[in-house]
Design a protein that fits this description.
This protein has about 300 residues and is of the alpha+beta class. About 40% of the residues lie in helices and about 25% in strands. The chain contains seven helices and eight strands. The protein is globular, with a radius of gyration of 36 Å. About 20% of the residues have low confidence.
């Protein structure tokens, strides 16, 4: 094998080349051997290129000598002609795989070395731009506010620790609402659910959505806000991802049916975290109970 002259690597590049160099050489040797085998099966083949860049070549005479040496040690003389193609295919596969492994290792080590240099140099274009608190805060500047926690407490009878809607950001009277639940680590349910892996219980997520539905149903034009609002049924619940402390659960509830005669409301809802669906409920059934007071 004749290797073409290659420029000497720099000192910084030497650590990346030591690991994959032997692998790439092994791949070249395997391809060279496969070339020798293939050369004997064709009288018109005078040379075979080993490397992609054409840096190594085997002549026909040297190829014949190589394959005869290999075949004499492995197979009988009578069956050498029938096994030549098999040797060629096997060595080609080994050579291609070894060369590919060397290239992949070189690429990974090169990327790893580049990442270290980027971190050390603190290049903003490569490592990313640092966002200040003011910039992060402005991301939610366009989100409207319809009801804060004080206004919600005037609509719902729930109180801490079971008031699970922090604010309402979008509201359409008698139809639908979008509310927010900020999940924090100091909430009592995380003491036991679970101590080493805090996850918001699914029933509490459903309860938060039900309370958002109550904000729709306990106001005009559905009701005057008097009486009690209870669960009557639930169907088609699907949990898509866990909700953990630090997440912001954005919920939407939509009224599908309202029967004033029976005080029954049908709703559906979804909840998201970072734009990903966390919970979906196909059907909520609520019952409105009015208190009848007899005039004396």
């Amino acid at each position: 094998l004749a290797r073409a002259h290659r420029p000497e690597p720099s000192v910084d590049a030497l650590p990346m080349m030591t690991t994959h160099k032997n692998v790439r050489i092994a791949g070249s040797v395997a391809l060279a051997t496969a070339a020798a085998v293939a050369a004997t099966s064709s009288t018109n083949l005078l040379a075979f290129v080993v490397s992609p860049a054409g840096t190594s070549t085997l002549t026909k005479s040297r190829a014949e000598a190589s394959v005869n040496s290999i075949a004499s040690n492995v197979v009988p003389e009578a069956s050498r002609g029938t096994t030549t193609a098999g040797f060629g295919a096997a060595f080609v596969c080994v050579g291609v795989i070894a060369t590919r492994v060397g290239a992949v290792r070189h690429q990974r080590l090169n990327c790893r070395n580049r990442s270290v240099h980027v971190s050390a140099a603190s290049e903003k274009d490569e490592a990313g731009k640092f966002m200040h608190a003011e910039e992060v805060s402005k991301l939610t500047n366009s989100v409207p506010l319809q009801f804060d926690n004080v206004a919600i407490a005037k609509i719902l009878p729930h109180r801490y620790p079971f008031l699970l809607v922090d604010k309402v950001v979008s509201f359409e009277a008698g139809k639908r609402a979008v509310g927010v639940k900020n999940v924090t680590a100091n909430e009592p349910q995380f003491t036991g659910h679970f101590p080493d892996l805090p996850i918001m219980p699914g029933v509490l997520m459903i309860e938060a959505m039900a309370q958002l539905g109550g904000i729709v149903c306990l106001q005009a034009p559905i009701s005057d806000g008097k009486g009690q609002f209870f669960f009557a049924g639930i169907d088609g619940v699907k949990f898509r991802r866990p909700v953990v402390p630090g997440d912001t659960l954005v919920m939407e509830m939509e009224l599908e049916k309202w029967k004033p005669k029976y005080g029954v409301a049908k709703m559906k809802g979804k909840a998201y975290v970072n734009g990903q669906l966390a919970l979906q409920v196909d059907s909520f059934t609520f019952a409105m109970v009015q208190e009848n007071k007899e005039e004396s």
